[in-house]
Design a protein that fits this description.
Elements (H helix, E strand, L loop, with lengths): L5 E2 L56 H6 L17 H11 L12 H4 L47 H4 L1 H5 L9 H10 L3 H8 L6 H13 L7 H6 L9 H12 L21 E2 L10 E10 L2 E7 L19
Antiparallel strand pairs: 1-2, 3-4
Helix pairs in contact: 2-8
Bound molecules: heme C (2 copies).
One heme C binds next to loops.
Length: about 325
């Protein structure tokens, strides 16, 4: 078991999305991105929300499969196991990702916790709201460039996008389905999913192909070609202003790159490792022997309280009371 403070260093915000990925479909309702996500009625006066309004979905729909063939500046080729991405699989995965009917009561889609307009996470909330308002215990991961991640989730407990889907689909504070067969039966009954699966996979709709479709869409969610990428890898001196360039100098001098590496050809800004940065020590309770933690090369801090192991083996999915 890893201490709760041991987490992967993600700097996804440093590679801001130059392109929105869940952009409006051509024709029809411009805000409809998936079969179960008809975004209608939000403009009605009797609809109230405390959420910051999104006035428009910026961007345009991208051919994610073609883009993944030649990833944008700053990213390497996709891992061979992820290639090639087939367009029909990506499109099927996109429909599923935004389909609320995949949750037990038809209210929650993957895309509602991983909101494209908010960087494929929920940036209004520290931790997203799950089924029937239940609390999810961790911040929703930003799903950019997950194609390259050897391990998934903050604690790395999954290593396959195909298998990972069952965590949110079955968790009682997320999409709340009782079991896999219930999910498959529901998807089989919806619209033309069975036909689409048959067209995309020889095996048709199965637990495995459901995972493959969602994984294919997510592998297409690539973010790079940021001003940093254009400046650093594209030799465009004007892409980054002087203060930002100076910031990068400091970043290098301070040794941030030892955990957030910037390579010769591309940058993930994460080493995919797990590091004890001391986060969580305040909640951990009883003072112990001061523990010396290296927060940057040569930079140490003495913690006055213990960095404990998590109180539960799985903070997110084994909540005894969903509302606590
Ligand atoms: C010892 C390894 C290590 C070093 C060195 C390090 N970081 Fe981190 N950094 C991490 C880890 C681990 C996380 C993830 C923390 C979390 O998820 O709560 C992180 C997260 C971050 C985040 C938040 C990213 C996000 O997506 O939310 C920023 C910003 C950041 N680091 C900046 C820096 C800067 C700037 C430096 C240099 C001054 C630096 N880091 C040095 C390990 C490190
Ligand atoms: C109720 C909110 C919620 C829903 C719905 C949801 N997720 Fe997540 N997702 C999260 C949270 C929270 C995490 C981080 C959990 C952790 O690290 O323990 C996460 C993490 C992930 C990760 C790991 C990414 C990484 O880089 O480590 C993937 C992949 C993912 N979700 C895909 C999906 C898919 C696919 C669906 C739909 C089948 C989905 N999620 C539905 C909240 C949600």
């Amino acid at each position: 078991m890893r201490p709760s403070s041991v987490i992967r260093p993600h700097l996804w915000w440093l590679v801001p999305a130059a392109f929105w990925v869940a952009a409006p479909a051509a024709g029809g309702n411009p805000f409809e991105v998936g079969a179960g996500d008809v975004r209608e009625g939000y403009e009605r006066p009797d609809y109230h929300t405390r959420s910051a309004a999104l006035s428009a979905t910026p961007g345009h729909r991208l051919d994610l499969a073609a883009r993944a063939q030649a990833p944008p500046l700053g990213l390497p080729a996709l891992p061979t196991s992820a290639r090639p991405l087939r367009r029909e699989a990506v499109d099927l995965g996109r429909r599923l990702f935004f389909d609320r009917r995949l949750s037990v009561n038809g209210t929650l889609s993957c895309g509602m916790c991983h909101v494209p307009e908010q960087g494929l996470t929920q940036n209004e909330l520290r931790t997203p709201v799950g089924l029937e308002g239940r609390t999810v215990r961790r911040n929703a991961s930003a799903l950019y460039n997950t194609a390259y991640r050897p391990r998934l989730f903050h604690d790395g407990r999954e290593d396959s996008l195909e298998a990972q889907i069952w965590s949110p689909l079955l968790a009682n504070n997320e999409m709340g389905n009782p079991d896999r067969s219930a999910v498959l039966e529901r998807v089989a009954r919806l619209d033309d999913y069975a036909e689409r699966f048959a067209a995309a996979y020889d095996a048709g709709l199965t637990a495995a192909t459901l995972g493959r479709a969602l994984a294919s869409y997510q592998r297409g969610l690539l973010s790079a070609e940021s001003p940093f990428d254009r400046w650093y890898y594209g030799d465009d001196p004007a892409a980054l202003d002087a203060p930002t360039q100076h910031g990068f100098e400091i970043f290098r001098e301070a040794g941030c790159g030892s955990c957030h590496p910037v390579g010769e050809q591309h940058a993930h800004f994460t080493d995919d490792g797990f590091h004890n940065t001391g986060i969580g020590h305040r909640a951990a309770g009883a003072p112990a022997q001061p523990e010396r933690i290296q927060i940057a090369p040569g930079v140490f801090t003495d913690l006055r309280v213990a960095v404990s192991v998590p109180r539960m083996t799985c903070l997110l999915y084994t909540s005894p009371s969903p509302r606590d």
